[in-house]
């Protein structure tokens, strides 16, 4: 559970960090919105202050600025609302005079666009105007046009939230928002963390089951699989692991099988190599010890026996190399079109003398006008030879071996049938395994058991299949099919 706990706490800490960031963002956004709300309320409440002031006192007297009137306007306004800053603007927005705390005015003129929008709007929307005391940001205001004798003389421009009010408001707002934000943040953090940890624990339950199953599999429990109840929302991951585990188990079984076959191969090869070597060694030692006593006929017979054993040994080694290359996929078929009937006649001619020695009759039955096939001539010849070797090996004297060729629209079938003792049904599925020999005891020792295994491998790389049909004491028939050459007419 070490890894699952580590993942659980990583997710939990990530959640905690996200909640903290959200909390800080919440406090900042709430403060900003609260400040905007306060300014909008201020403008809604005092937005008509400039109009009301001008209805009481006019700052223009005989076409000239009445300084006394302006001072009265500004001082009376600031008495009622100390946070207000009063500015008198000309028609182009230039500041003519003002009453502002500490007289720290940094602008010489104010943009008229917000002022005109405010004056021309009947609903008095929330609009921010330039603050003469600050160059960086805007503030809410009240404004009204100054009309004298029907002529626009300027504007009365009032900042509704002075710098001093901002300082007090910011301090109070900051304290209030800090307290509110802190309390809300702590409450939200606590509840969210508790609910989040519970949710993470629940959501990772299936993951913990999967990790536990993987650990069991790693420790050698190859039957460990993730059940349907443990999959949950991680079904693709669970199915992938189950498929992987099945594949690994299959590979392990295959490796065990290969290892077992390797051991059998070593044992059988050792035996089959030792037998002809022992015969050759025995006869050669006899010839050496009895060199002066051997008759010419006996010497010739001994030499023939040594030659026969060396031929068997050479054939066995050749079969071993051939099978090893086939099993390692080192042989690529060189396919070409050819007539199977011509190849069959050549093979039958080679085996005729051997068949006569064993008193076995050979026959070739080939349909007329057989089409061309597309395959590797040398490898197909090797297949037919191995099948002929097998048939002659198990056919008793006076028997018969038939090679039959027939065709359909897409394939040509090659069938080799003998009149030997046959193959028991329960053994037919295993005869193509290497070193698997079937038959009476007197004939089992006639070969190394690689012939049919080589046949199967060659046909596998031709995408063909070797089949067998046999009954005890009624002979056996092996057949396979090769594709017709597509270019044949």
Question: Explain this structure to me?
Answer:
The chain is an alpha+beta fold and 489 residues long. The chain has four domains: 2-37 and 171-203, no CATH class; 48-159, Beta-Lactamase (2-Layer Sandwich); 220-330, Signal transduction histidine kinase, dimerisation/phosphotransfer (DHp) domain (Helix Hairpins); 332-483, Heat Shock Protein 90. The protein has 13 helices and 14 strands. It has helices at residues 2-46, 49-56, 67-80, 113-120, 163-203, 205-218, 228-231, 235-289, 296-327, 340-357, 377-394, 441-444, 451-461, and strands spanning 60-61, 64-65, 85-89, 95-99, 128-130, 138-148, 151-159, 336-338, 361-366, 373-375, 400-407, 411-418, 467-470, 476-483. The chain has a five-stranded antiparallel sheet. A five-stranded mixed sheet has the order 9-11-12-14-13, with helices on one face. β11 and β12 form a beta hairpin. The radius of gyration is 53 Å and the shape is rod-shaped. The chain starts with a helix and ends in a 6-residue tail after the last strand.
Features:
Helix Hairpins, 56% helix, 14 strands, five-stranded mixed sheet, alpha+beta, 4 domains, 13 helices, 489 residues, five-stranded antiparallel sheet, Beta-Lactamase, single chain
């Amino acid at each position: 559970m070490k890894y699952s706990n580590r993942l659980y706490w990583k997710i939990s800490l990530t959640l905690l960090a996200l909640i903290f960031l959200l909390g800080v963002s919440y406090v900042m956004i709430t403060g900003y919105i609260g400040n905007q709300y306060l300014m909008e309320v201020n403008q809604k409440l005092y937005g008509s202050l400039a109009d009301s002031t001008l209805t009481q006192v006019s700052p223009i007297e005989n076409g000239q600025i009445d300084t006394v009137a302006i001072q009265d306007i500004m001082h009376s306004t600031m008495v009622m609302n100390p946070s207000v800053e009063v500015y008198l603007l000309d028609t182009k927005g230039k500041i003519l005079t003002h009453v502002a705390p500490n007289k720290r005015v940094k602008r010489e003129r104010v943009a008229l666009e917000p002022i005109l929008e405010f004056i021309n709007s009947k609903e008095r929307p929330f609009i921010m105007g330039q603050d003469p005391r600050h160059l960086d940001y805007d503030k809410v205001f009240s404004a009204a046009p100054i009309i004298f004798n029907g002529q626009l003389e300027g504007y009365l421009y009032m900042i509704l939230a002075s710098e001093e009010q901002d300082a007090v408001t910011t301090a109070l707002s900051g304290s209030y928002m800090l307290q509110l934000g802190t309390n809300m943040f702590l409450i939200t953090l606590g509840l969210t963390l508790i609910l989040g940890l519970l949710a993470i624990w629940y959501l990772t339950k299936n993951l913990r089951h999967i990790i536990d199953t993987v650990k069991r599999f790693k420790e050698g429990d190859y039957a460990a699989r993730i059940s349907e109840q443990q999959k949950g929302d991680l079904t693709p991951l669970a199915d992938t692991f189950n498929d992987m585990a099945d594949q690994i188990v299959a590979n392990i079984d295959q490796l065990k099988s290969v290892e077992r076959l390797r051991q059998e191969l070593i044992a059988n090869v050792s035996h089959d190599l030792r037998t002809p070597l022992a015969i050759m060694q025995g006869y050669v030692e006899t010839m050496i010890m009895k060199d002066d006593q051997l008759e010419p006929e006996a010497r010739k017979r001994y030499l023939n026996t040594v030659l026969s054993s060396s031929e068997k040994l050479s054939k066995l080694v050749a079969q071993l190399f051939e099978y090893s290359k086939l099993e390692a996929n080192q042989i690529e078929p060189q396919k070409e079109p050819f007539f199977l009937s011509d190849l069959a006649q050549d093979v039958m001619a080679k085996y005729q003398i051997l068949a006569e020695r064993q008193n076995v009759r050979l026959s070739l039955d080939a349909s007329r006008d057989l089409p061309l096939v597309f395959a590797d001539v040398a490898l197909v010849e090797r297949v037919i030879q191995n099948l002929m070797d097998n048939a002659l090996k198990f056919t008793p004297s006076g028997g018969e071996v038939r090679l039959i060729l027939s065709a359909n629209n897409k394939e040509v079938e090659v069938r080799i049938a003998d009149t030997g003792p046959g193959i028991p049904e329960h053994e037919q599925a295993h005869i193509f395994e290497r070193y698997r020999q079937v038959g009476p005891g007197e004939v089992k020792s006639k070969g190394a058991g690689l012939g049919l295994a080589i046949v199967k491998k060659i046909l596998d790389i031709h995408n063909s299949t070797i089949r067998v049909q046999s009954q005890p004491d009624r002979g056996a028939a092996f057949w396979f099919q090769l594709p017709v050459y597509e270019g044949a007419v």
